[in-house]
Amino acid sequence: MTTLSYSFVELNLDDQNHQTALFNLMNTYMLDRMGCEKPLHVDSFQDLVKGLKNQANYIGVLVKIDGGYIALANCFVNFSTFQMSSLINIHDLIVLPDYRGKGVGRFLMQSVKAIARNRDCCKITLEVRNDNQTAQNLYLSEGFKECSPSMYFWEFSPI
């Protein structure tokens, strides 16, 4: 049996290899049925990079194996007013289809947890689609639970 060896690195938006990985992983996510099932256009990607560079609270986490990037977590540092401490919100979690079911998602979650511990964050939050049972099972197995009391994720689009 072959054991796969993963490593993680915080994404550097000025590194061309990291930008390429970000594009490929985000495009995969967008094409997925859990995404919008539409490709990420290059023009939109440049706006994404520019926007992320303007977010001092952005943390991108890439998982690497054999020189290639296979997973990504787009995270943002926020602040808990109740706990008076920083927290990390996982906004996107992406694993390339060929690496799903091989522990990559778990490794990525554990990598984000390590970053949160190193930054003395009080918690990690995330949103998950109610029809994404695979992701929910991963999150539950990693100690995440539904908020108590239960919360809704609402949005408003001013444009």
TrEMBL record:
Check the UniProt entry and state the signal peptide residues, or none.
none
Presence of the UniProt keyword Lipid metabolism in the record: no
Domain of life per record: Bacteria
Annotated GO MF terms: acyltransferase activity, transferring groups other than amino-acyl groups
Q: Which residues form the N-acetyltransferase domain?
A: 9-159
In terms of InterPro entries, this protein maps to: Acyl_CoA_acyltransferase, GNAT_dom, YpeA/RimI_acetyltransf
Q: Which Gene3D superfamilies match?
A: 3.40.630.30
A Pfam family annotated for this chain is Acetyltransf_1
Q: Which UniProt keywords apply?
A: Acyltransferase, Transferase
What SUPFAM superfamilies does the record tag this protein with?
Acyl-CoA N-acyltransferases (Nat)
* Protein name, per record: N-acetyltransferase
